[in-house]
Amino acid sequence: MRVSWKALALTFSLLMLQPAIIPPSHGQTETGYVSVHNSFYVHTPGMFYDYVWCISVLSLDDNNHVTIYQLPEGKIVGEADLSFKQVFRYNGSETDPKYFKITSTKPVSVYLHGGQINAPASWHMGWGQGSTFYSAVDGKLVGKRFIFTPMPNNRTYISGLLDLSAPVVFAVEDSQIKLYGPYGIIDEWFMFAGTSRQLSQIPAHDVYTLESTGKVLIGTFNGDSLTVVPSTSGELLGREFITRPAIQSLPENANITMGGIIVFAYEDCQVSIFSLSERTLLKSLTLANGEYSFISDLPFYEISPQEYAPRDIYVTSTGTISVWAASARGAIMLGNLGDDVTFLAGSGTLRFYAPSYAIIFSPEKMTFELDGSSVEIEKDGYMRTTGGYHEVQTSKPLIVQVVALHHVMGQGSGPNSFCSVALSVDTATPEAPGKEGGFDFTLIGIAAAVAIVVVIVFVKKRRKRGKV
Fold first, then answer.
1. Is 251 left (phi over 0), alpha (psi -120 to 50) or beta?
2. How far is 88 from 186, CA to CA, in rounded Å?
3. Quick one: CA dihedral 72, 78, 83, 88, positive or negative?
4. pLDDT tops 60 at residue 352
5. Which one of 38, 61, 148, 437 counts the least CB within 10 Å of its CB?
6. Are 370 and 450 in contact (CB under 8 A)?
7. pLDDT recorded at residue 248
8. Between residues 93 and 186, which one has the greater pLDDT?
9. Model confidence pLDDT, tens digit, residues 112-129
């Protein structure tokens, strides 16, 4: 007899005297986040040694012109005309951090990744490791149709299992799924809600299409990483989440690397964490609105003596929360998360922990509150926060990129490797930096000059009339 993951949650809720039926949320939620758009902002941390960063832009339509501007100057540093499913890659290896705006004439998805240069030279990309979720074509991180190119992660194997860094499909609903590659259909299968499947042996440089009859998520996970996890509704805030706590460590290495999750509370809530792999309750905690917790002891589970498998988890809450998947190296603490980057975006209340720092991008001129202090940023502007916990209050949507630079057991100042799908907001527009609301400042100057000439001519005519 099959037991669904929702039935499992109900059973444990009753056993623990928790509310089993989740009422509609009345807490603060974000609005306007999109993962498919025509305007994105990204920050590339300073690299070191033989490491490179790469911005990959995947076109979701034909006749798509992509332009990459460096901020704050607005200088064009890369552009290309793309066809459907074509990828444009722009990369660098500078030791100083940089900031970019990516625009397109038609929808795209944007990937930011970096690592060692041991991939084929023609790719011109970093080959590293990190965790992220891929975008559905409708612009959310949960959906029924995905067009994506897998992140170029290092390959991670344990106990003879499949490549753990390959993309993982999580079924939110019972789903019949088809996976297409460059030359046609690759595989077709059925998934029950609450189960997962690893997509092994799909090269990182190809583009794939996944079609499902039910809602699914697609994520990729590796060690020393962190990523924002979408709720099962597709929003960044919610009450139900399915994920994997990054790549966890084997028991003999538990003191070196440990996978876990971070939970941020947006309402007073009771949070329960279930193992979908073992159908058991792992943790239960109570959080007040504004509190957060790092649950780090979520290692692999042993399926037989000396044979291990990754643990998929289901997180449910009686109030609105956000969830991140992460892994720490060295001392198991928030400051040791990464190396990696991740994004969150929207309006209202945005809560996050930056192991190193975060960059806040403003797609329009705006004033918002950061940790209770008022901040004003111009259109296409950005600011850097300190490390640690932060809270943003904003009536206009903005984008936050969280950066974790930890590497080599906490020593060093640059990132080892990272990967993330970039997020944006509906209010981000594809004008070149320095053009407000679609108006070119040079045109405004010309119009002003013409107006001055008209006034001078009018005054001269009036003077002539006065002399008659």
1. alpha
2. 24
3. negative
4. yes
5. 437
6. no
7. 53
8. 186
9. 988 765 443 333 444 456
